[in-house]
User: Which sequence fits this backbone?
């Protein structure tokens, strides 16, 4: 193989950002970054070109400059008071967050945990074979699609009752295996952030997104994660959450609670309008939560460790999960999400979500097609950057209202603009100064 061909194979174009008219690539040759491109055109600044000519090592400079360009681009989209601001987060906003040895995981990590739970690869393979899961890679190994396996198992458990395998103490049939995997998923998602360091990212995120003028809508945060990382960060930072549950104990769910807000009344009015309390946000969990419990006809918020898998309200990974979206409280969450997407001047920021929920994907597509003022920003991370097979890749290069960004949740939070706002107490002081001057 010629040296030129070797060099071509070692060269990688890592896509950091894609939008209409601008596709930002960080060029890597071997272990070094060598160029920055918009499409096929180099946009390396003159000062870095001059430094390279003088013999300097500019790999780190190139990497930092490319990320600076990327953050400037999406920062421009977020550095103002957006009338209706929505966030939708998936596993990427929980991945590696938590305490000690229990941290947020991706679906492929849960497959590995399920394999250990079942007693090893041989038993996991037997389970896959029993439910007729056939998706294998080029090495004849099962692809780690736990969602697909659980979907097949749910269909098969009612008519295949014989044991799949036996351990010293138990016989594992499909029904028992599914229940054990669901409990494992629930336990893995009961994450805790007790130290200030581990909660700082989620708390910083809430601090930045809740800086809103009182004249515009509260920020709405939709998370598909079962964990309570946002809730814990909110308690630590003294934020108020409007999450559909009553403010009294026991906390009982009712959709009407999303229509409530919190205002300061006594001695606060300088004109005939309400003085809205700051640091308040809406939280919606369309796939449920580890601390939701079904009791009779009501949904309660309770300690996760006190709720059994059978009584928990979590839409576990399976292909027909969209069917649960028509049940309460999930229907309420999905209805609110769709209504929010239809509002004028709406920006949706999607973080760490692979668009595996077809119901949610269809709602976003509807907003793109029918809401002329809708903006979509997608924040996902992959070592290899944004790739052509990513959902919305083609549309991002053709439409002016889609932007794709290769960024981790933590990096996005750190780079998110610190928007300065004034509240009504500032307005009161200004009016007082003016009146005293007169």
Assistant:
């Amino acid at each position: 193989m010629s040296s030129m061909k070797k060099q071509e194979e070692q060269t990688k174009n890592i896509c950091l950002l894609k939008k209409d008219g601008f596709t930002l690539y960080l060029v890597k040759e071997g272990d070094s970054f060598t160029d920055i491109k918009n499409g096929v055109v180099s946009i390396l600044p003159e000062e870095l070109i001059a430094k390279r000519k003088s013999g300097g090592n500019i790999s780190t400079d190139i990497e930092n400059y490319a990320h600076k360009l990327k953050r400037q681009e999406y920062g421009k989209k977020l550095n103002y008071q957006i009338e209706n601001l929505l966030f939708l987060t998936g596993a990427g906003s929980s991945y590696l967050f938590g305490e000690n040895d229990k941290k947020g995981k991706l679906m492929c990590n849960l497959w590995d945990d399920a394999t250990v739970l079942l007693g090893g690869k041989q038993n996991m393979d037997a389970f896959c074979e029993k439910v007729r899961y056939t998706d294998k890679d080029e090495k004849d190994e099962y692809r780690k699609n736990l969602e697909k396996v659980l979907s097949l198992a749910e269909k098969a458990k009612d008519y295949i009752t014989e044991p799949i395998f036996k351990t010293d103490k138990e016989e594992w049939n499909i029904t028992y295996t599914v229940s054990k995997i669901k409990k494992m998923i629930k336990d893995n998602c009961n994450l805790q952030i007790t130290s200030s360091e581990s909660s700082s990212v989620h708390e910083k995120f809430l601090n930045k997104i809740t800086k809103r003028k009182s004249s515009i809508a509260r920020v709405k945060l939709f998370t598909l994660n079962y964990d309570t990382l946002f809730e814990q960060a909110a308690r630590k930072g003294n934020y108020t959450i409007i999450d559909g549950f009553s403010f009294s104990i026991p906390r009982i769910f009712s959709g009407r609670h999303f229509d409530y807000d919190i205002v300061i009344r006594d001695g606060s009015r300088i004109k005939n309008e309400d003085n809205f309390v700051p640091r308040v946000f809406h939280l919606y969990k369309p796939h449920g939560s580890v601390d939701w419990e079904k009791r009779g006809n009501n949904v309660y918020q309770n300690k996760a460790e006190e709720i059994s898998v059978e009584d928990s309200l979590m839409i576990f990974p399976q292909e027909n999960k969209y069917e649960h979206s028509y049940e309460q409280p999930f229907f309420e969450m999905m209805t609110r999400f769709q209504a929010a997407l239809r509002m004028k001047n709406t920006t949706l920021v999607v973080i760490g979500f692979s668009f595996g929920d077809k119901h949610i994907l269809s709602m976003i597509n509807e907003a793109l097609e029918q809401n002329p003022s809708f903006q979509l920003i997608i924040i996902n991370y992959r070592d290899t950057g944004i790739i052509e097979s990513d959902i919305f890749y083609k549309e991002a290069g053709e439409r002016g209202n889609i932007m794709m960004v290769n960024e981790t949740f933590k990096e996005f939070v750190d780079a998110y603009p610190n928007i300065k706002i004034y509240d009504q107490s500032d307005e009161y002081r200004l009016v007082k100064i003016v009146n005293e001057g007169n």
Remarks:
- Confidence is low (pLDDT under 50) at residues 430-435.
- The CA atoms of residues 202 and 258 lie 22 Å apart.
- The chain has three domains: 3-71, 82-98+192-373+408-424, 105-188.
